[in-house]
Amino acid sequence: MAARQVVVVVAAIKRTGWARFLTVNKPKKPRIASNQSLQALTLAALALPGLMLNPACAEEDEVEFQYGHYQEGKRNLFTTINTKNPIEVDSLLGKAKFSLSDRVKFAFNYTQDTWSGATPISTAPRVANSNRPILADTPSGQTITVGASPYLNTQLLVNRNYIPLKQKPNGRIAGQDTQLVHILSMASPETRKQGDFNLAYEWDETALDLGGGISVENDYESRFGSLNGRWDFNQKLTRLNLGLSYTNSDTSAILDHDSSPYITKSEFLGQIEQSGAMKIMHGNRQDWSSSLGLTQILNKEALFSANIGYTRSTGYLENPYKAMSILFVDSEQGGNRLNGELKAFLEQRPNERNQLNLGGRFIQHIGLTNAALHVDYRFFHDDWGINAHTFEADWVQPIGRTWTITPRIRYYSQDAADFYQPYLLSKQAFAKTVYNEASGTFSSIPFDARLLPQNFSSDQRLSAYGALSGGVTVNKQFSKAIGLEAGFEYYSHAGALKMGGGGEGSYSDFDYFMANASLKVNLAAMASPAFAEQGHHAHHAEAHHHGNPAPAGVMFGHLLNQAHAFMVGYRFMYGRQSGDMLHGSQLATDRQIVNGGCGSGVQACRLTPTYMDMSMHMLDIMYAPTDWLNVMVMPQFMDMAMNLRQLAGAPPVQPGEHVHTGTGHATGGVGDTGLYALIKLLDQPVHHVHLGLGLSAPTGDVDIPLRRNHQQDEGFIHYGMQLGSGTWDFKPSLTYIGQSEAWSWGAQLSGTHRMEDKNQSGFTFGDIFQSTAWGGYGLTPWLSTTVRGVYTDQAAVSGRFNATSGVVNGVLLANVNPKAGPMDFPSSYGGRYWDVGFGLNARVPSGDLAGNSFGVEWLQPVSTDVNGYQLDREGALSATWQLMF
Amino acid sequence: MLKNALNTLLVIALTLVLSACASVAPWQRGVLAQPSMALALHPAQAIFKEHIYISREAASGGGAASGGGCGCY
Amino acid sequence: MKQHIFFSLCAVWVLGFVGLIQAAEIGDASPDCQIAPHEHQASYALKHLQGKVVYVDFWASWCGPCAKSFPFLNALDQEFNTKGLQIIGINLDEQPTEAADFLAKYPAQFTIASGDNQQCAENFAVKAMPSSYLIDRKGHIRHIHLGFKPDEADQLKTLVNQLLAE
């Protein structure tokens, strides 16, 4: 057989001239004398550069910012009302890719997501009543249901066939009940941050790229690297891709303080570290992945791509927050009703997983409407027994020259893992008391772990189900340089949607939606002659260049001088407070904080912050309708983290009251949105003055609660950890800028005035006044340094959080807002500050990236005088990127 | 199961490739160059969505690691 | 079995395609074709330009590197037009309106051949977009340049200079 195949191929070569194919890259000896340089260049040039297999992604330099939101629907708890907010994720993505040279491309991505909400931690029979109503006694003596709380260890009755029995309140049996239910638990906000890069070198028909990155969250850290090769051949009608990647991830998960005592962890004792009151699960996993892909142009209007991938995962593959409910029934019991004990165990997965992916994608142009149809199918198989199918279809419909609408539908179906069970049944007692006749004593014999399966999980992601989703993405191109995108997708997960039936019961059904919006800036459009032709680009780039830029930390530092000019910028600010606590400008001891920071007696402070980090990402979009007026929109994205410690000398803990420490809090998401107008007042060669009038719209949350913990509701998280001000704020500024040769200088007065007495949560932040002055020197035409001084005065918070009722140890209280430390008191906000700033500004002078400017500034605190009791400041970093059109 | 899927995929690929073995000259690739024909339509959106799918479904992405994170929610 | 047939057929297909190309090569006399300059009514044959150094550039509106090459070609035309260089940008768009839109955005100072230039592309057996052919005063192809990267502009300019000096 093999021989015949060779013959066929040889015949083919003879017919078509293989020899010719081999020598086509060698130039024929020129009949005319030709010099060396001509020859050399020809050799290189014949290698078919220029035409990418898919020129659409003709890697143009670009920057993209995206906001994404994920929102899950509430789950059905059957036995009690579900008051818990379902999972919600806010996600921010910044992407930049640009050419370092004709053949070297660099790409960088930054992703940040903050998530919170209620998620299933286990599954149990409904009759186990695991989502207990949180009952509370009101002052009038009534008992009401105010929420649901997870109970992992419960008792229930089963019949001889081990089917759970339903009991009436009077204890009578009401029949069998096989209904299952998820046990939900709340998670406080957590933020994950990821940075990754990709560096590619392109030859004429091959390319090699190297990627790597790191993803960090509180309990999980991944580092990854990849190497990909690409080879185009057959006149660039065919492309081969080969990829290899490696991921190494560490888990260090703090096991939930409330549920952990009720979860059996015996299999993981070697991995759990006891740190104070906390139990920390440690684990490491490694993933190796390889893939091979082929893309083929089929005809003028269609292409096809197929790929195969293999991934091997080893190590700790469990989810540390998922527990398996095991129903222990001692089969030696007599009678028709057996007592069962439901116990939770940390899930146990195999320490190895081999996964295979096969995929194909077909893209066909539809001439009738100039649309494109994308059809995608993927098959997944692993040695955990999961087979999954994914079908996807996108219809890309351009409308006019600048709009594109892409409806999309997706269907996914998977089998359950071999070791998946909603809950396990073990026909033995969890613990049996036996009487030892010889010694005359009772002793307890625990369950026999050998009778339990090696692996088990009730993680819904390993169950059998199907999912149908559909959505639409709309793109609008405003100019060659600026494009906007908005997308929405609704997703429904259901056991009944599984291909071929046999999916998990409807108790596990849920749905969610994803929405995203992004702004894309094409950097290459700047350098295109179209812009030069219009004339104004070069002109106002020049107009801008006559001054050194203001320091990166100064907002509203410059004005667009040309009508219809457009600017896109990105601003990052990071601030950290840590170290000593201050009272005024003096060091505050723990004793002083205990006595003075909160109330008196049992109301005295117990906790104090050890650090607080705040990062802010801002998008800066600016347009000049005329040459004296600029309008600006500035959306913001925040994330914050704070850690607390117990104060020495704090009053003793009340009976039945817990005080937690050490775990810290985090919040994150969309912040307030700024809307500004800048008005030119004076524009001379040396002196420039402009006025800024702005409004800050309260788009950031000010009602983020703390998670219910230790059987108590805790009310709102500290004022400073909320994401916005909650009020409409007026933000005026007056800026002066001077410039003479390489020297520049400037000054600015700015303020923030809260235009409302209180926000929806009952308080307002204090007004802010700031003045600053700086000097700058241009080291080269593209690099300058700045030094500046800043004085800031901010008033304390006025008002306070509205009372939040909640249940503490079974009693409904009118107000459970935290009062544990100075950060919970309005008087410990604001202060008077002096800072010195050191900055660097750079502007790309030429090439494809000409006109991009970058700035960075470090603000070093020199004097701090706080209201009340607050952490000292470590400093603040500002970094900016700007591009004008 | 796996073998069946492999065979099906192979037959599909075979049919497609052979039925459409038309050569496309370099200057005839205008349609293929349209953004709507790109293999990756919305790369940024895909990063967001893939992360969600991966944290909700057992079948992990295409193979090459493009991101980390536990997706433990 | 299925695999064997598949690979054999594909080998035939791949090789067969390569074999069909009768490429214009270095040292060959330049292929001829009719071109219709954008600004003139009458079309003429490429070989009528013999005696000049001719820079034939095949381009299309959808081709990214083509856009990048236009400023370079304009500069080249400006510098060497009077010294005997004739640049002809042969458009290969299937929709003439797309070429017109492109020219509005990226104006060309050199001669553009519009209309149906398929035959030209076939005669030259164009292998990539853009493709440039440098033809000396005697009508021989002296250099073929495929694709365009800004870094290559200087080399191309040197070559044009050399041919003009011959």
- Give the CA-CA distance, first to last residue of chain B: 31 Å
Structural class of chain B, by secondary structure, is mainly alpha
Count of the separate structural domains of chain A: 3
Label the overall shape of chain B.
flat
CATH class of the largest domain in chain A: Mainly Beta
Question: What features would you describe in this structure?
Answer:
The complex is a heterotrimer of chains A (885), B (73) and C (166). By secondary structure, chain A is mainly beta. Chain A has 3 domains: 2-45, no CATH class; 55-125 and 185-521, Beta Barrel (Porin), CATH 2.40.160; 523-884, monomeric porin ompg (Porin, Beta Barrel), CATH 2.40.160.40. In chain A, a hairpin with a 4-residue loop joins strand 26 (465-477) and strand 27 (482-494). The termini of chain A are far apart. The model of chain A is unreliable at 1-58 and 528-546 (pLDDT under 50). Chain B is 44% helix and 0% strand. Chain B has helices at 2-19, 43-56. Mean pLDDT of chain B is 73; it is low at 62-67. Chain C has one domain (26-165): Glutaredoxin (3-Layer(aba) Sandwich), CATH 3.40.30. Chain C has helices at 2-20, 64-80, 96-105, 118-124, 153-165; strands spanning 34-37, 44-45, 53-59, 85-91, 111-114, 131-135, 141-146. Chain C has a 7-stranded mixed β-sheet. Chain C is globular. Residues 5-21 of chain C have low confidence and may be disordered. Classes of the chains: A mainly beta (885), B mainly alpha (73), C alpha/beta (166). The interface between A and C is large, with 50 and 50 residues.
